[in-house]
Amino acid sequence: MTFPAAGQTLPELALPITAGAIVAGAIATNDFENVHHDKAAAQATGVPDIFMNILTTNGFVQRYVSDWCGTQARIAGIAIRLGAPNFVGDTMTLTGEVASVEGDRATVSVRGRNSIGDHVTATVTLDYGSAR
Amino acid sequence: MSALLEQAREWVGKPANKPATARDAVNLPMIRRWCEAMGETNPVYTDEAAARAAGHPGIVAPPAMLDVWAMPPYRPGGRTSEEDMPVLALFDQAGYTGVVATNVEQHYNRYLTLGDVVTSTPTVADVSDEKRTGLGIGHFVTLAYDFTVDGEPVGRMTFRVLKFKPNLKQPEPQAAPAAGAESFPHPRPAITHDNAFFWEGLNNRKLLFQSFGGRLRHPPGPMDPVTGSLDFDIVEASGRGTIHSFVVMHQPRMPGFDYPLPVVLVELEEGVRIVANMIDASPEDVAIGRAVTADFVEVEPGYVLPAFRLA
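^ Those are the sequences you sent over. The predicted structure of the assembly is below.
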């Protein structure tokens, strides 16, 4: 088993933000708020297009870290903060770094940037003790 | 503290809504669809043997799906009033119709396995003071969720949303003038929830003011500076008044204005004062105490400013 070290970086991942990606994520997370699938409804709130829901962002953050840590670690927690929305046509680039390692636990800082700014800043807590 | 904030804060510490129990147990089809949407390829979520090899009792759900299981169903026309949270509905009724989720923090006690039936119990944890954000003014409402399976705590979540009044439409900016142009666009006002009525009134050729129990106020503000009241009526001025003070602008010359430019502070007969330009008057005609009447100048298409002329 390879145990992470603080400062280790995760490979970058670029995700195209298509209408399909937004709608597939909204349905998969059971989030039927109309701003995540109905362009006219989104525009009525003053934004240019439909945008990604927070549960999909949460899912992408889990997937990004999971791609890297595989089945060796259990995910103990995810904390995310949203900034610039992910609108149709944008690309979100995820980067990550091991922020700390303490005992069996490691925390990974994740950042997802789009053309407007930081869409998400996140901390994922991994537990390497429970997977044996 | 506003009455709205006081009402909203009465909810802190109380259930935000009735507990919701998932209609479907944790199941492979929903997991598969979620993994496909996220591009999640870790086999412990879809393959029994891989899950066991990784030390799980069988297929497990992606932990980030914690709050997906007990979400309300799709309904044409949106959620029912029972599914809406009363603390958020308070803000809707007060004009804070926008909603955007800003933070999610999840802690997992264990991974969910196929067959688990999740119950979600939300509590109102916090209501912030009014904040000015890029989307508009609003309040952050923090909800704390407990997730259980047959009474066993399986995870927790803190969920924060911003309930906001969408920013108002602003005047279209004019295209930048070509180099050496003779005419320039006028400066644009910032339209806020407090002054929108004033600018709408001008577009209808009306001079409107806030009246706090009969005491007029200009420029518009959110609150009566004397009593602190947030409640005001809007009244129309006759437009008749006298010059209380004035200046004649010569320099600096701002693009979009004609010089020399008499600018007057007019005391209207209702008792409120307003600053505006004089029109059809030469600087020597302007004097303190002279009677004037209001007029309206469409300086650019759809952009009306008040002005005064000699009575």
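Residues 27-60 of chain B form one domain. Chain B touches chain A at residues 30, 33-34, 36-44, 50, 53-55, 62-65, 67-68, 71-75, 78, 97-108, 111, 135, 166-167 (CB under 8 Å).

Shout if you want it in another format.
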